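Quick check before the chapter quiz. The format below is the same one you will see on the exam, so make sure you can read both the input and the output lines.
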Amino acid sequence: MEILSHNFAPCCHVAGTRWNLNNKHLNPRQVKLVGGKRSKVLLVRIHKRVQCASLSAGGRLGLNHSGTSSSVKSSKTVQSSRNADLKIFSGSYNGHVIGGEEDASSIPKEGESKAKVSIPALPDESNGECGAPISSCFWEWKPKLTVHYEKAGCENVGSPPVLFLPGFGVGSFHYEKQLKDLGHDFRVWALDFLGQGRSLPFEDPAPQYHRENDPEGKETVWGFGEETEPWASQLVYSIDLWRDQVQYFVEEVIGEPVFVVGNSLGGFVALYFAASNPHLVKGVTLLNATPFWGFLPNPMRSPRLARIFPWAGTFPLPSRVRKLTEIVWQKISDPSSIAEVLKQVYADHSTNVDKVFSRILETAEHPAAAASFASIMFAPQGQLSFNEALSGCRKNNIPVCLMYGKEDPWVKPVWGLQVKRQVPEAPYYEISPAGHCPHDEVPEVVNYLLRGWIKNLESRGSVALPLLDDSETIQHSIAKDLEFAREGAKRSVEVRFIGSTSLLWNRISSFVGSHVGKLKVKS
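Here is the expected output.
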């Protein structure tokens, strides 16, 4: 479990309309200067107290508020384009600059409310609303390697199949809100990775005592023996194992290409699986995906370097690793430690995490949990890095959608924006307030966005992406408040969408194609 930190200030998006910016309210604090042959953008850091800005004919930007002023001299490239148009777009992050013809006076001023969108609530079972029934199942992939998974909506024959992959330390139970809701529209699966959740082994991979010496099963900790059972001789709970697990699950259980959704570690595995098996994937959604996994070198990528490390997550665990694991596991499996982690990753502390807490604690009490944790921590890295997997998806034209909780203390939005830069055609939704697990914290929002994205792909663009409901909202960066009901009260969450020019062209081509088709029918 990585702890990542990065400070990322908001910015104002400037693109060409007029040089005159007098009396325009600037909420963001940063603007960037980008050199180019056609569009020129001025960079200036604006103090929080500054309220207005103006650019003089000499290319000097003045900032004024209550007698406070400062100025920044523009570059020669900016001076040479004084007659070009300048526009300020309300937006959040630097590096996103577009052009257009709208008047800057349309920019919302401080205190003005954003557009509001009402979205469906989750099925309220207390009011008699039924969520989709969830089935708990087991699938034996290999001898002694049994995978637990949950499914819903299998009666929706012909609907798109969706597979959810969990983060580290949780399991399919973390997607209960998706299964119950999206199971009304799609065929939905969620699985537990081997070594986690209810996919922990049913037998001891390296027993400390022979069965004849322990007939009553007094041994409470598995995997700490000196000899490995034959079925576990090559077992390593690595990201390569999970990639293969997902591949065979899709082939043997689902039986057709899927939309795969992953949170945290599950996001990396989803991307890795998609890049390795593009023929099995219809699209990938990343929910605060961790950008790296594993500490030891992969023996296929770096065989010489891998030889330096004599042990890499296999069974039996070396004695020094067993001692270290006992100390670390006693700390992190303590209920107070689990509660503290949940407090960190959920931005809204009013979220009910009792069920998540109890299921994590249940997993931590499994006799194989400690040894499995050690195997995961010392397993080698994957054969593909996160960026290589992302490049593989783009090379194979696999659609990618990004949904990131803004208040995540570990995988901050900057990581999602880096993915966005590498795959600029991917829609990016930043959700606030939401932490590391937006699908569980604000499931209404994630389900709404995911449902809309899948429908957009299935309709080949004839159905607009979420938040792009009409031609007026085709912008590079927009923000809306999504309202929904929960427990008898109204909730509101801000979602900022960052698209790309390709989204505009896709909608134009879809519009033209549909109208050309109508003309052909009439003729």
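If your answer matched, good. Confidence is low (pLDDT under 50) at residues 1-113.
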